[in-house]
Structure formats: C-alpha cells, structure tokens
Design brief:
Elements: E1 3-7, E2 10-16, E3 23-28, E4 31-37, H1 47-59, E5 73-77, H2 83-91, E6 96-101, H3 104-113, E7 122-126, H4 129-132, E8 141-146, H5 161-170, E9 171-183, H6 188-200, E10 203-208, H7 210-213, E11 219-226, H8 234-241, E12 248-251, H9 253-259
Length: about 270
C-alpha cells in the first residue's frame, strides 16, 4: 500500500505515520491531504477536522439518528483520504454519505487502501464538486462539507454566493454547511468567504486557532452556516478550547466585524 501512485491529476503518495500505529498520510502532488488510522476511524489527526467533530456531536447527536427511520445524510465536496467520511460512518449507524472526488484514480486508490465503507453507506462519486452540487435535490442533506483545494486554494467557483445558495437549497431544515478555508496571514480570502456566507445564511460562525484569526500565519478556518441557530453552547466552546490545538469560536456580530469591508464573492463573467 505504501508508495507513489499515478493519478489523473498528478501523483499520490501514501506514507506511514512516523509516530507509528496503523496510520498513514496521503499526499497529493506533494501536499499532505489526509491522515487515516485504519484501526480507529474515529481518530482524526488534522486539527481542522478535529474542530469539525463537535459540529456533529453537538449539532447532530448520534442518539437522534437510529439508522433506520432517521439516517444522517452527509455530502462531502472533496474526498481526499475520506477521513471525515470514515469518522461519520463509525459514529452514526447506517449514515448515508456521498463523497465527490474529481480524480477517479485517486478515488479508487483511497477506496482500496483505506477501508472506506461501500455504498450505500459511503458512495464515491467521481465528478467536479462545482458541477455536482447544483444537480442535487432540495432538502436532501443534513450536513455538507466543502473541503476542496487546487494546490493551496479552493477553486473560486466553489466560493461564490451562487454556490452557497445551492448548498442552502440542498440542506434540509436545520442542516449545516461546513467549509474548510485555507488562507494566508492577510485573511483576505477568509473575510470574503465570511461576507459570502453572511449574504446567504441567517447564522454564520468560524473556528480557528487564535494566531490564525489574528493574522499571524497561514492556516485553516472552519466556517459553519445554517438558516437555523447553530448548536454553539458552552460545552461546544469548551470542546474547542481543550483540543490539542486550542481553537476559538467566532459567531454572531463578531463574524460581521471580521468580514467588515469585504465583498461577497460573485461568479466571474
């Protein structure tokens, strides 16, 4: 399983985690894309994924989904090593997930190497996330995760007001749109993404470590947006503060202040 593999968009490398265990790092064109623990799918190594975890556990308690009459429905825009899809499958009985991955050879490599559950539990759909989301039915997902990168940035067409409106349409009542945003210290991209979400959704929040929010380094910001109030109580914030890389929650008027001066992203003519 270890080694370098040709894929449609270049090359993928699977390396053993240097800290041991049955854990592996997937690199796509030299960039770390995913971390997978084959013995424990509930283990998440990447910090931004750990910040996503309480969005599920507090906003969508597993006790609310019996796996029969009510199944959690998750759409992943961007596949990578399917780390979050494996986590959801292990955490929610009989959840129904679709993972959209542009690279067919990468999707097959991940399927065969990382013990991804088979359809209908996890369906790997090869396609362009920018084209797939607009085709999906209204009110058909509880959670949408956008985690798509071309190099170090998310393709522009996945960041626009129009695309956010498609996510809003596809989400069922109480659904949450989760976005992984990578940005530089100037935070210009993150502020534009915040302005875009505020243009579309009633409730928007952000999660990141404090140095990132203060513009001190390159890193990740996790956005969450919904048309219904988000489950962001004291326990949620405590979970973030006690993470291995402590994170800060920004919500309400603080998101509006963060986005001040930025314009929503509109499609290019």
């Amino acid at each position: 399983m270890l080694g370098e593999f040709p894929i449609d968009t270049g090359s993928a490398m699977i390396e053993a985690d240097p800290y041991g265990g049955n854990r592996y790092i997937l690199k796509v064109n030299g960039v770390p894309s995913s971390h997978v623990d084959l013995d424990d799918p509930t283990y998440l190594d990447f910090e931004y994924m750990r910040w996503m975890e309480p969005i599920f556990t507090f906003g969508f308690p597993a006790s609310d989904f019996d796996g029969r009459a009510r199944k959690l429905r998750v759409l992943h825009l961007g596949g990578g090593g399917c780390s979050m899809a494996r986590w959801v499958a292990a955490s929610y009985e009989n959840a129904r997930q679709v993972v959209v991955e542009l690279d067919a050879k990468l999707a097959e490599l991940v399927r065969t190497s990382f013990d991804v559950p088979r359809a209908p539990l996890v369906r790997l759909r090869v396609g362009d996330a920018g084209q797939v989301l607009p085709t999906l039915s209204d009110d058909s997902r509880d959670v949408i995760i956008r985690d798509v990168f071309a190099g170090s940035t998310t393709p522009r067409e996945l960041t626009t007001v129009d695309y956010a409106r498609h996510a809003q349409r596809v989400l069922d009542g109480g659904g949450v749109y989760i976005m992984n945003c990578g940005d530089t210290a100037d935070l210009a991209g993150a502020k534009a993404e915040a302005a875009t979400l505020l243009e579309v959704f009633e409730h928007v929040a952000m999660i990141a470590d404090p140095p990132m929010l203060k513009g001190r380094r390159y890193g990740n910001i996790v956005f969450l947006a919904s048309d219904e109030p988000l489950a962001l109580g004291a326990a949620f914030e405590r979970n973030l503060r006690t993470a291995p890389l402590p994170a800060q929650l920004v919500s309400g008027a603080s998101v509006q202040r963060f986005a001040a001066g930025a314009s929503p992203i509109i499609p290019q003519a």
